[in-house]
Amino acid sequence: MLTGKQKSFLRSKAHHLDPIFQVGKSGVNENMIKQIADALEARELFKVSILQNCEEDKSVVAEQLAEGTGADIVQIIGNTIVLYKESVEKKTIKLP
Questions:
Q1: 88 pLDDT higher than 90
Q2: Rounded distance between C-alpha atoms, residue 79 and residue 70, angstroms
Q3: 78 located within any domain
Q4: In what helix (H) or strand (E) does residue 50 lie, and over which residues does it extend?
Q5: In this structure, what CATH number is given to the domain that contains residue 48?
Q6: Pair type for strands 80-84 and 45-50
Q7: Is 94 a member of any domain?
Q8: Contact 36, 69 (CB under 8 A)
Q9: Helix H or strand E encompassing 48
């Protein structure tokens, strides 16, 4: 679980990032969760965009992704979710 200070730090790091994944009409599936988990191991922090045609609520999508990958939700702003998970091998972000 992240503290408020850590979330603020990660939000500032994620500000300039572009979304890597998009959740569309089909919603969240096992293949998407596996790809996001692999990307989290490589990058630790990134954004996921939720498309207009996604039928599920953005908070539900964020919870599904966080539970499936073991990541923390840093922020949900608009249709964008920021996820963070500490990498085992490629640790680059030092939390305050």
A1: no
A2: 21
A3: yes
A4: strand 45-50
A5: 3.30.110.60
A6: antiparallel
A7: no
A8: yes
A9: strand 45-50
